[in-house]
Amino acid sequence: MHPANRLSREKSPYLLQHAHNPVDWYPWGEEAFARARAEDKPVFLSVGYSTCHWCHVMERESFENEAIAKILNERFVAIKVDREERPDVDEIYMEAVQALNHGSGGWPMSVFLTPEGKPFYAGTYFPPEDGRGRPGFGTLLLALSEAWTKDRAGIEKQGQALTDYLSSVGKPDGPTTVDAALLPAAASQILRRFDGTNGGFGSAPKFPPTMMLAFLMREGGDDPKAAEAVRRTLDAMARGGIYDQIGGGFARYSTDERWLVPHFEKMLYDNAQLARNYTESFAATGNRYHARIAREVLDYVLREMTAPEGAFWSATDADSEGEEGKFFVWKPGEVEAVLGKDEGAAFCAYYGVTAEGNFEHGSSVLHVPVWDEAREEALKAARQKLYAARAKRIPPHLDDKILVSWNGLMIGELAYAGSVFDEPRYRDAAVRAARFLLKECRVDGRLRRGWRGGVMSVKGFLDDYAFLAAGLLDVYEATGDLEFWREARALSEEMVRLFEDPVQGAFWSTAGDHEKLIARRKDPYDGAIPSGISVACGVLLRVAAMTGDAAPRAGAEKAIGLFRDRLEQAAPAQPELLRQASFLVRGPREIVISGHPGDPAYERLAATARATWTPHRVLAFANGAPGEEAILPLLEGRSPAGGARAFVCREMTCAAPVTTPEELRALLK
Known about the structure:
Elements: H1 13-17, E1 26-27, H2 30-39, E2 43-48, H3 53-63, H4 66-75, E3 77-82, H5 87-100, E4 109-113, E5 119-123, H6 137-150, H7 152-168, H8 182-191, H9 210-219, H10 224-239, E6 253-254, E7 262-263, E8 266-267, H11 268-285, H12 288-304, E9 315-316, E10 319-320, E11 323-324, H13 332-339, H14 341-351, H15 373-378, H16 380-390, E12 398-399, E13 402-403, H17 404-420, H18 424-440, E14 442-443, E15 446-447, E16 450-451, H19 462-479, H20 482-499, H21 532-547, H22 550-562, H23 564-569, H24 575-586, E17 589-594, H25 600-611, E18 617-622, H26 628-631, E19 645-650, E20 653-654, H27 661-668
Parallel strand pairs: 1-3, 2-3, 17-18
Antiparallel strand pairs: 2-4, 4-5, 6-7, 8-9, 9-12, 10-11, 13-16, 14-15, 17-19, 19-20
Helix pairs in contact: 4-6, 8-9, 9-10, 9-11, 9-24, 11-12, 11-17, 13-14, 17-18, 17-19, 18-19, 19-20, 19-21, 21-22, 21-24, 22-24, 25-27
């Protein structure tokens, strides 16, 4: 093992993975750029994350290679960045990678910069040796070093051109309004990409289309194609290899169009959003299979992704023992060794485990070629036995950092699922995680990006504020505890103060006092996680509905309107922002449950309101707490003195209060 480098002082698991490389790594910061300027050297920026398979490959092949490390150390200043810790850096330079590679990008991300941070060459994974018509990493380093010496003017020109481009990308289209006509057109645009054979949208590789499904559930209306797209996609993913059939939880994506062979890393944000999809599907349709999958995902998170402090870890790796997927795949003999010949044969037949295999080395990724509810229930004990046997294998690496934004997504889903499934332990887990973040991830009133053995030094980004505020609103709706409403509203106000553009509208990804990078961006595109702008708009619309305050709604309306053209032209790229446009255009359903907690009549009404599928709702509770109407104006005039009642309003019109779950369901339907 090589002596520790500067990365050994960092908290990020990804940076610590490189702490003993022979490369003289710097973390992102002024120290590295000051050295580059002083020594007149270009900067090599390497961006990745701890559960990235090809990041591990490039480390083994190149960053542990003494000859390549020597070139890097002598001719460049090398910086290593965890994209999950510094999404601002990743976002800017990924745009440069895509600009130079015909829209293609990914991780590991390899970018070459001037000492001023301007990119002039970029790519992703580079093999160590020349071959297949592309240079090896060592050859590339020597060529770029020579160009730096002999063609400085050309490099400076390229760097300035790319920097100018990065400053222009993501600028809003211009102020306009959003109307109802946008929404069905956007749904139709998304549905044109539906894969009617395999479920999902588009071709391989396939990522879980979580936000498209959420939008279609709200804007599909009576269109049978929309309902079919949602159901078939949820079914196909749950029965595919992308889903861990014995341990629960979804992998990041499928390498094929059939959801069969995944990239085996599991991300907290995917599982939060997918569990929400399955929970909402059950709430809307009563699909018991989808309820089972949602529960299994959440049970997996509580069992394997929850820190002792109560918040949630970030991810687990695709690799174990240096091989992708080794922890998860099976051969017939391995199954029979655990279950015996007869039960093992039945299991292999149902879950597609064959002698030939469907993965590497004759192994099989478990999947369900033909679903049969009775057979699946009969094999429940077999799955538990195989899970116990698998637990004895060497597990994949765990990225145990706690990110505020990703935790916000999981907190929100646990709170919602706790209500839909009447499962207190989900709700309690959401409360515990929320309190941990509010206590441990704020310094002098400001959110930090996250926590790992102590709070991270990086100040929170837009998505940290927006995602946590959204999660806290869900916790309030699940508990009726005004503590979480107060915290959510305070975060929403701080979010506006720190990130909103008061002139043009919408939200910057970084606060005004954040480190100055070569560009400051407003990014409306929803990728693997929703954009901070999309979720911020949703938070403001919910706050406006609960307070009657016009300012938050106006801020959201202005932000969504700025991106109207993109919503029309590229609906699949912005499904979460479309969902908030739907909330804006359709208007909220305002529900207040009035009464005393513990009173059976009140509890029945509250449970009904929480569990009933009601798109674009806001839900509040009038319990007679001192000053509650001042804290939450939606409660005004709805004192619990009149007994347990439910009030439902929409578009400035309120129905007469009702007192039974049946009457409330009728109003909500």
